[in-house]
Amino acid sequence: MSKQIDKVVLAYSGGLDTSIILKWLQDEYGCEVITFTADIGQGEEVEPARAKAEALGVKQIFIEDLREEFTRDYVFPMFRANAVYEGEYLLGTSIARPLIAKRLIDIANMTNADAISHGATGKGNDQVRFELGAYALKPDIHVIAPWREWDLNSREKLLGYAEQHGIPIEQKRGKKSPYSMDANLLHISYEGGILEEPWAEPEEDMWRWTVTPELAPDKATYIELSYRNGDITAINGEQQTPAQIMINLNQLGGTNGIGRDDIVENRYVGMKSRGCYETPAGTIMLKAHRAMESITLDREVTHLKDELMPRYATLIYNGYWWSPERQMLQQMIDSSQATVNGKVRLKLYKGNVTVVGRTSESNSLFDASIATFEDDAGAYNQQDAEGFIKLNALRLRIAGRLQQK
After folding, report:
1. Closest CA relative to residue 125, chosen from 71, 86, 176, 68
2. H helical segments located in 56-116
3. Is 376 annotated in the active site?
4. What is the domain partition of the chain in residue ranges?
5. Residue 90 contacts by C-beta under 8 Å, 6 or more apart in sequence?
6. Shortest CA distance to 180 belongs to which of 276, 294, 108?
7. Distance linking the first and last C-alpha atoms of the chain
8. Residue of 67, 80, 94, 97 marked active site
9. What's the pLDDT tens digit per position in 68-86?
10. Among the options 177, 180, 294, 323, which is catalytic?
């Protein structure tokens, strides 16, 4: 240890791994441990973490419901950009990390803590995301990453440590999931187990949020989403908070078998990793938002957003939410959304999301009098197209003549 640590704020789930980390920090660093547990919609009770932390001697315990902040300030801004990593991944884990990093730093400032700590391993992306965020918000903070320091590098060693130090090990009834899972309001992810073989199909009982499309209802579900400044404000005319919208879209999507994905992705640390994801609400939101933009955004604005989106998505995936370049891009994206107002009608059916209608009373750029195949009454002069084509063909004709010579 190069620095004396008196207080450390630990991102604490209440599970076995972070309980071991809590005790390890107390013993290895001889410091006071402050725990922080966030409810970002993982679907599990977070309050039991309080009793577990108290049993391990923790005096300052922070348990916070961050579902609205998570959706409003992180998920919704990301979907204004239509962000997708490597063409498939909707960034469910990635977008939760900057909020957790922010709250770790906030609590460190409130309690005058010297350090923060997390349970991310040395192989994954999360260590990068947590720490880049922390350093951006508090440049001189000390970060303790136990998985990069200790020798408890196997399940057996962790269980042995827990038994040695009297850390309770929950014995859950039924079949234990072989997967490493992470969940929040946007998604649930699965890694490990048979998924470490890219050729192996996931077992059906792995999926938690969605029914298999084959067993989804035989009758389609129609929904209408209302937009203001690029964000969903209502479902079927009912105004809802951002978190409520996510909860309800997850239920609607999951019932109709929507949102499953099986991906081999390129981690920032250099390795390829196979993961499966359920993102029902996010799948619906991406489709609907692009439909809303299709009639309210200028062509070149739309194309510029599409060109910049992969860079924006990569910044989030790699942990640069708090970087100046992401913030600059966000300002540009948000300014483009002033006209993204209206309604989108969707059909949900057996794993598919189909746009069946879109309208905007005040911001639609779709002019039926120009686009029609019928008589446009002079709204568009088709003869103008001849000069347009010849001007755009000029360089091609010059090059063509040269080749003929």
Report:
1. 86
2. 67-70, 76-80, 97-111
3. no
4. 7-164
5. 83, 84, 186, 187, 261, 277, 279, 282, 283, 286
6. 276
7. 75
8. 97
9. 999 999 999 999 999 999 9
10. 180
CATH code reported for the domain at 7-164: 3.40.50.620
Buried b (16+ CB within 10 A) or exposed e, 277-288: bbbbbbbbbbbb
CA 156 – CA 154 distance, rounded (Å): 5
Match 């072989």 to its residue by tokens: 178
Start-end of H helices in 172-323: 242-255, 280-296, 299-318
Q: Which of 17, 182, 334, 376 is catalytic?
A: 17
pLDDT digits (tens, 9 = 90+) for 143-194: 999 999 999 988 789 889 999 998 877 654 445 667 889 999 999 999 999 9
Q: What is the 3-state secondary structure (H, E, C) of 266-288?
A: ECCCCCEEEEEEECHHHHHHHHH
Query: For residue range 237-247, what is the model confidence (pLDDT) as tens digits?
Result: 999 999 999 99
Q: Residue 181: exposed, middle, or buried by beta-carbon count in 10 A (0-12, 13-18, 19+)?
A: middle
Residue (of 96, 123, 110) closest to 41 by Cα position: 96
Give residue for tokens 């989030």: 316
Q: Which residue, 359, 370, 293, 398, is CA-closest to 79?
A: 293
What's the half-sphere exposure (Cβ side, CA atoms, 13 Å) at 266? 6
